[in-house]
Design goal:
Length: 261
Amino acid sequence: MMIKTTLQGGLIYLTMVFFIATLVASALRQRMLIKGFWAAGFLTAVSAVLWRGIHTGHPPMQNLFEFFLCMAAFLWPLSRLSSWKNGIDTTVKDAVLGLCILFPAGFVFGEEVRRLPPALQSSLFVPHVASYVAGYIMLARAALMALPMLKKGCPPAEMRSAEAASRQTVVVGFLLITIGLVLGSLWGKICWGHYWQWDPKEMWSLATWMVYAGYFHLRLKTGMRQPRLLAVFLWIGLLFVVLTLTWINLSHLFSGMHNYA
């Protein structure tokens, strides 16, 4: 575990403090403090992303450290959108998710500035990575929203609400990772001459996509008859997202064209 003593590290830790303060305020049922701390966490997270971009001189989406910074900055607007669209307050879940995302950025991944490789100097760089950043966050939130569906004796009203919210969220997430997959294929054709390289990262990204495709197939087949199984699918999908982001990138067992990530 490493402690970052730079401005970048300070912004990460301050964001985490605001997220923790949001959880404490929620436990104390202090509505105004919840809103204030949550908004402050968002502003600090955005500041961390902006500072990283200024410091490196390129869009901060090159590696996992930067990827996780961007993910944390997406949480507040998605939380507000969820509240507006579904009438569900996901602040606590999103704050916990934010802490989980920022912990490796703050204590595990290095913040060393790296030169942007030639392969990433493309107009597809930002839209491809941004699609996955937003898509993975949406898929993680869909799994959290589905938690009530795993409980025995869950009230029908709560079950329906969780079902609707998780379904709407996973639809957006799936669309975004589909866009990311297609853009990545086009980018591969431009850079390496082929749409598909059978790279480990490509294969796991496709496997993740297929898990969520299986979720939609199950929904069409069973509807609301098996809500727990649908929730389990979402958590399996989230496991694949985590493995694709971490183990496949960091493990020395897998070498490929995405090692720079």
